[in-house]
Amino acid sequence: MALALALVVVAVAVLLPNWRLAALRVEFPWFSQSISRTEQLWPAVDMVHVVMFAIVGLLAALAFPAARLGRLLLVVFVLAMATEFIQIWVPGRTSSLVEVLLDVVAALLGMMPVFACRSLASLASQGARGQIALMRVGSQAPGEATWSQGLRCTGSYRQYRSGVRRSPRRARLPGNLIGKRVA
Prior knowledge:
With about 180 residues, the protein is mainly α. It is about 60% helix and about 5% strand.
């Protein structure tokens, strides 16, 4: 619902000609003040686009929890291209490929907190099951140098996402760490 509302706001913002936007700013002072404050955050960049697409990115990541980051970014890229393409025919508006890139980066920034929280939650849930402990190579006692529990160290990321993984007996990690199965 919130994502649909954000998309409607983006569509209305794209389709409004400059003269109508100026009339709305005169008619509603609170609207004008909020846009002015947003534009003053970073004058060199169209911050209204950044805020709108960051919100769209955040809501898209929340609305589609099973979607991968790349697919969500592809959808946002298509949306950004469509909005810039439509602006060719809107009086007083201009189209720019730089704004498409800006919109995608803003959406990525909006998505990052959601994906970071998902990653942390995934690690925490694996740690609660106690599958794997990380230990220093050469450590004598298993509990002596345990750094963290719950990291799935076997297989590739793609195998992890698909649920297929290799035997969890031993996995190589970067540096002087190895993963060992915890009973």
